[in-house]
Structures are given as structure tokens and as C-alpha cells.
Amino acid sequence: MNRVAVELGERSYEVRIGPGLIARAGVEIAPLLRRKRVAVVTDETVAVAHLPGLTAALEAEGIAVAALALPAGEATKSWEHLARCTEWLLDQKVERRDVVLALGGGVIGDLVGFSAAILRRGVRFVQLPTTLLAQVDSSVGGKTGINTAQGKNLVGAFHQPSLVLADIGVLRTLSTRDFLSGYGEVVKYGLLGDAAFFDWLEREGPALKAGDEVARLRAVTRSVEMKAGIVSRDETEEGERALLNLGHTFCHALEKATGYSDRLLHGEGVAIGCALAFELSSRLGLCSQEEPSRVRAHLAAMGMKVDLADIPGDLPGSEALIALMGQDKKVVDGRLRFILARGIGQAYVAEDVPGDKVRAVLEDALARRR
Ligand code: NAD
What we know:
Elements: E1 2-6, E2 13-18, H1 25-29, E3 37-43, H2 44-59, E4 64-70, H3 79-91, E5 99-104, H4 106-118, E6 124-129, H5 132-138, E7 143-148, E8 151-158, E9 163-167, H6 176-193, H7 195-210, H8 213-233, H9 248-257, H10 266-283, H11 290-301, H12 318-326, E10 338-341, E11 347-350, H13 355-367
Parallel strand pairs: 2-9, 3-4, 3-5, 5-6, 6-9
Antiparallel strand pairs: 1-2, 7-8, 10-11
Helix pairs in contact: 3-4, 5-6, 5-8, 6-7, 6-8, 6-10, 7-8, 9-10, 9-12, 10-11, 10-13, 12-13
Nicotinamide-adenine-dinucleotide is lined by residues 43, 45-46, 49, 72-74, 77, 104-108, 110, 130-131, 133-134, 137-138, 141, 143, 152-153, 170, 173-174, 178, 181, 266.
């Protein structure tokens, strides 16, 4: 088992990563408990595959378990399910000193984390991330929240978990598509700040995809180390944390354009967004033309979506896509901000990116669909 510390003063916590952690969950979680009871919230898909194992592990340590399974999917990150989850936790008589467990992907982690943040003005929670995306990204860093009619993640809170248990063994039951979607975020870490990690992914990515647990352990651990470092230095995104949004300005526009449907999963949008951000960086003369080609080549070698041409169905034109970017909550004072790169592993926050260059990148990408 690997351990990565997220250093945030009295809100510090550990991310433990390894195979078999669900089976050890009782032992890992017991020291946090003031009474031997937990409430687990999961989704219906994860409940079938992993709730029995978690329940058995907790009960083996004498911990009583109450569990709620919500529908799987992004639509669950809603006011409706926030209310359902929070009221259920109240019905279970969860108190300030208790601990809530979030067992699932980013949807469950974000929703349950937010519910824990507002329940009795904040109860502790433990993340048990079960998707690659949740293990390398959403379970670490304390961003929690829901979607509203106005957009994604617009209502939420910073609420750090007390512990994260990332059992890489559970990734075996994940569909290849969901695995590769999470891999989009893994690649992002190499691209934003660790060129040697990207080199390693180019070599080991296929083994990782095929299920090699040594490679998976290393990839998840390195990703979490990078996220933990950034979050420790900039918890509330005043500066450096924005680098984690590499690829996300394009991604959010594409997710909106595709209605947050399964035409485009979040991590797929991130991967395409990273490729476009490198293309934009190259056109702005920040990096060589080989760098975006290398990014695209790796995504393609992994069997991932690489470009707008890989998104099924209609997409709006470049102006409409730019308008969708403009509603991005990362816009400061109405100016478009991009995370650009001076090369692989060298991302930075760019303000005032020329609109005509963004438009040209999108128009060329849209032309490749025809
Ligand atoms: P998800 O939670 O919807 O999981 C994807 C699918 O995989 C679901 O159908 C789920 O039931 C299934 N699943 C989960 N674990 C499984 C397993 N082990 N075996 C089989 N099936 C499994 O989606 P996600 O990709 O994990 O997360 C996406 C969400 O994360 C988005 O809402 C996004 O906004 C959020 N996110 C949050 C942060 C953050 O910092 N809080 C960062 C990135 C993304």
C-alpha cells in the first residue's frame, strides 16, 4: 500500500492506495470512529459489485453499516438527490462526530462530500473512490458539489475528506470506456507538470489499460502525489490549482454542447481538451508542433477519443463553442483564461488568450469532422 499525505494543517489527511483496500476498510477506518457505526452512500452499480465486500470488511471490525444506493450517473449530482441523501443521513441519525463513507466514482464522491459538508454544518467523510477518475482526481482535494440547470458544479463547498482509500483492485470491474475516461486525467498530470511521467505513460499505458496492477498502482500514486502537492499549496484555487484545469476550458464547452450525455464522458473531454490546449500552445509559438502531435499519438495509441471528430453527433460551430467557454466559471472578469503549455510537463495559466487563435484551433478541429 502506498500513502500520500495531503498537507492542509489540521485538515490534513492521507490517501492510501493499493489493491485489497476495500477488504481492509474496517481496519483502516476504525481509528476514525467515535462509535462503531457508519453510513455508506454509493450508487446502484457499485453497490452490486463492491458494497457486500465493504460491508463485510466493516462488520468484521464490529462496525454497524447502514447503506443507501442512489441511481448511477451524472444526473444524480442534483438538488433532488442531495436532498434525498442528506435526509437519509439525518434519518440514520448521523451526528456531528460520525463518519459518512462515499463509495463510488466522482458523482458519488462529489454529492456525498457536499452532503457531509452541509449535514449538521459539517460531518467527517471518507472517500472510497471506485473509478480511475475518482482515484486520481475527484476524491482528493475537497471539491464537492452538484450540478444545477445553470451548469455543472455550480453549487458546492470545499470539504476535505478525513481519509481516502483508493483500492486499485476495484478498477477491474470498470468498463474500458470509464477506465480510459479516467486515464484522460492521468495523462493530464504528466502534461501539466511531469514530463518523465508522460514518457512513462507512453511506455506503460497499454499495460496499465490491460490491467497490470503494478503499473496501475504507480500511475494512481504519481497522479495523487501531484494533485496532493498542488492542493496543499493552493487549496482554494487562488493560483497554482488552476493548472489542474488543463484541457478543461475546451472540455466544459464540449460537455455543454453534448448535453453532459454519454456522447462525451468528462475524462474524454479532458483528453480532447488537452490535445486542443497543446495545439493552441503550439500555434501561439509556446511549444513546438511536435508536442501536440505527441499528445494526440499517445491518446490514439490508448484507443481514446483524441479530437472533435471522435465525438458522435452534431456539434455547434466555433463561435457557439467559444460562447459556451465564456460561461465557464473559471472566466475571470469576462476574459478567457486558458491553461497553456511551454512543452510537455510545463503548463501555466495564460490570461487574455487571443480569441482568433482559439477560433482557428476550433474551426480546424471542426473541419476534421467533415
Ligand atoms: P461516475 O461516478 O458516474 O462513474 C462512472 C460509471 O462507473 C458509473 O456508471 C458508475 O456506476 C460506474 N462505476 C463506478 N465504479 C465502478 C467500478 N469499480 N466498477 C464498475 N462500475 C463502476 O463518474 P466518474 O467518471 O467517476 O466521475 C465524474 C464526476 O466527477 C463528474 O461529475 C465530475 O464533475 C466529477 N469530478 C470532480 C472533481 C473534483 O475535484 N471534485 C474532479 C474531476 C471530476
